[in-house]
Amino acid sequence: MMKVKGCLSMVLKGCVVLLLMAVSQDLSAQVAVKGKNLGAVEAIKQIEKSSDWTFIYNASEISALKAKDLDASGTIESVLKTIFSGTDVNWQINGKEILLKKGQAKTAAVTQEKGRRRVISGLVTDSNDGLPVIGAGVFVKGTQDGTVTDVDGAFTLTFVGKSCELLISYLGYKDQTVYITDQGIVDIQLVPDTEMLSEVIVIGAGSQKKVSVTGSVTAIKGDELRAPSSSLSSGFAGKLAGVVSMVTSGEPGSSSEFYIRGIGTFGGRATPLIILDGVEISTADLDNLPSESIESFSILKVASETAIYGARGANGVMIVTTKDGTMNSKAKVNVSLENSFLQPVNMVDYVDGATWMETYNEAMLTRTPGVTPKFDQSLIDLTRAGTSPYLAPDVDWQDLMFKKMNMNQRANINVQGGGSRVTYYLGLQANHDTGLLKIPQVHSFDNNINRWLYVFQNNISYKLTNSTKVDLRMNAQIGRHKGPGLNMQELFRYTYLANPINFPAYFPAQEGDTHVRYGSEWLTEGSTRLINPYAQMCKSFKETNSSTLNATLKVNQLLDFITEGLSVTALVNFKSYAYSYYTQTLDPYYYRALPSSTDDNLLLERVGNTGAEYISDSGITRYNDSTLYIDARMDYNRVFGGRHYVTGMLMYMQREYRNSIYPNRNQGLSGRFTYDYAHRYLVELNFGYNGTERLAKGSRFEFFPAMSLGWVVSEEKFWGGLKNAVDYFKIRGSYGLVGSDETGLSAGAAHFLYLDNVGLKTGTGFQTGYGSYGAFHQGPKVNAYAIAGATWEKVRKLDVGVDLSFFKARDLWKAGDLMYEDVDGDGAVNPGKGTVEDHGDLVVIGNATPRFSFGINLSAGYKGLEVTALLQGVGKRDFPMAGSTYLFGGRNYFKDHLDRFSPENPSGWLPRLTDGTGSGDLDWKVNTGYNTSRYLLNGAYMRLKNLMVSYSFGGKVLGKLRLRDLKVYVSCDNLLTLDALPGAFDPETMNIVSTWAGGSLSAAPGLTSALSQNGNGKVYPLSRTMVMGVEIKF
Fold first, then answer.
1. What does the mean pLDDT of the chain come to?
2. In sequence order, which ranges of 455-541 are alpha helices (DSSP H)?
3. Contact yes or no for 928/937 (Cβ under 8 A)
């Protein structure tokens, strides 16, 4: 059998050699080139189009040649002489391939010849199947030395000096540059230039060709997530298919909420599992990663892909891979510097003080006509005149407390390279974020927002032998955040609750004062004081320090000596997270002006007895946790007969998480098998066998199987005529079981579900004995009973898809009130019990969840100028505008509230004003207490999320500056939004519930309580951002 194989190999080689020799003799064939002001590359393309000749050349060198008028015909030799006359281009003809080589000045050649001549040999193969690439051009950059690979893909050439750079190119493959130092033999893998066939995407515990994937996987490069923000997840919206991403706040350091195709588990975590270089990380860790350090980003959506992770993959998986070094390459240094200009968008526009008083009076009169208004006209006029800021204040809290614009800075430097054994990637990023707060220096601390974040990424790979490789990856994140001691959402809510006329922000200092005299007023005389948002902003300081260390050691051993394509990998990861914080507080003194005060003689009295002369410290609060993760896997990847692609994987894992005395542990066994016939018919089988300590013995382990099938229709013969229109068409489907062992944790369920939780001496007590000589005794208390029969939460997932590549009681109603329909016909309008069985007149009017989301990426370029744009949004989303947050009832008024029903404006859009107190309380409930079809808004939107204009300088400038690349750019975020919402709502933040901002996590939208909306003055607004930066590559 071995002899037959050897004979066949010799015959094949002989045939190829004879064929190349025969073709090389056919030099008399006629070719022609003709054109005005024709460049050399255009002339080459004319020849290739009209003949069988194929050219191999360095495009940047040949395209730099001066264009000229050409009209030549004859043999290939004669035409080439005409094209390249007056240049230093030489050529070498090998069969039907022509190798073009640009010469060098003689003085340089003479200098080089004085050096020592070295020999370098190598093998050029296809990165997909490992087959030799025959006839690839191998050049020594900057010289005339070059050759082509033989029938085995091998080459040998000589060069002068200690080192050189080899350029390898071949038609249908991407050019590759290899740096030669001390090595004598190199292995080079060329990547095909056909994206769908060549692209390899990262999947669960491995990688796979994109064409062979039968599940639903989205994969993009890290550079595509680049955005003018210190939070990586802010760039997800519109860029990752299947990912629903919502920006919850514009506060520095805040992150997006994101889900993969919604929520796939009932009571556990709703967010996807995030894997960085093979190990789990948190959303915060992901947010801090620089996009420059990310090589690829994959989204696993269906059971066939996530079953590998079993319990942890129920809501999908995000796999992030950081960059590696490059073998045999010079060190590449990349530097990015950015300065961002941020301007808040969708800020609430509040009415001034005089308008607020007029509006309040109107609200009183609609309930009780003829009642004496609370504010007389003289006070209104005095307030409007602005001449008495302490007795008739008109405070624009927003203007007083928040800036119109702020700036952030970002710097990133990374180094990438390697030799024949060691490769490295080193990155460092520094982010500096400021905020919108405008806090004066009234105390010894500065509590304006000042956030610094440093991220280090070190990836080192060492090739111990030709079959053994060791990887060490370390990610460190160090953060420091300074700002007010209260939550930012709370601060915006205080601004929303404070009207402009109750009190000034502060009174002027008097002689001998050692504290600020902040303004305030009683809400309930002597007991409840109104909140002064300015004092709340100034009174406290908080500093938070955090650090994350994530280190991974991985060893890979090829086992080709057992069977080709077999390998084993062992991985150990340790992650440690810690944070600490402290607060400093100076309790404010509050004052109000007495009625007898005049502008020239302010008489003040204290409002309450709070206030402190000295700063109090909270002491330091600390927290830390750690995770230890290990896994071992065996992989198999082999091609049989050039058409049968077989892969397999078997993995065992253990994970221990500790943040208290007792650790949390789980373990599992998982596997995958795939079969691909000629990239046409695809089969994949996956399983996960996972165990959890939360369940009783006998129920701890569960089996999660999945399978998927695929058919690449475009690879069938009958598709040939459609290739020009639809070049790639794949039908795929998957079905599987996924599960979760985290059910109930977020609701306070015990970690060990099968154990009773009993407290000793915590139950009801009793007194016994005589008088003071008695004793008090307590018995045990059952805090929670064990859950009998608790099992894994399991979800079945089915996915079918295609991949395409193309070219009040009625007698109380008054004019201006909302009227409701008696849907059930019982003669009364009510919500029943607010249940499915008894819902009264409640009906389904919409869905606040978007039915689809989209992102459109546009780009155009000319020479070094490039313009890119990202349009992002959602469609088919309803938004019920209800509740006191918007439809009155709060303590403040928006300018949008002015478009309301009144006798003078009977067509006003909003209902009549109600004051929300006393007899008007029922009016307030009728007009604001329910979601209604009248105020069901279209929540769809499209936003110009990002617009970037960049210019890359050309070769002459780069040569003078000795740079590899130089680019300047301007990037803008949130420039334009198309929606049908009132100006107070931002379409990205309007559905966010924040308990800090008075929202409710248990509210039932559409039933008897209004949706807790916060995107309207209660949250930190998003910003319109402009970034100017420069990117330098050495």
1. 79
2. 488-497, 533-538
3. no
